[in-house]
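Batch manifest, entry 17 of 40.
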Amino acid sequence: MNLELVTDGLAVIGAGTCLYWAIRAIGSALGWIERSEIARQAAESAAAPVPPARPAAAARKPVAAPTFGIPAAHVAAIAAAVAVIAEGHKVVFIEDSNIGHAWASEGRWMHQTSHRTH
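Output type: structure tokens
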């Protein structure tokens, strides 16, 4: 066993010990921060006045459910116009023109992130 091997071994042991104590110190500091935050929140909630309970509100009239989608009359008109112009082709699906761009943006993202940064 030579002196260089012994000094390298002691250096590894010293570095490991320093790393151990650094991790313990960071954990202790984070624990202290968490405990002080919990104590602050408990003091805040104890100091906050509790509002008195309000009596139950009277029942309200039910509201009509909102309608979503394209009205049936519009779908029928579009289908008839397409059938006349497109010589018998049928309308299978109608959607808003400004939705459905998720695949395009996903493809752009995949392409742009596939390159190495310079």
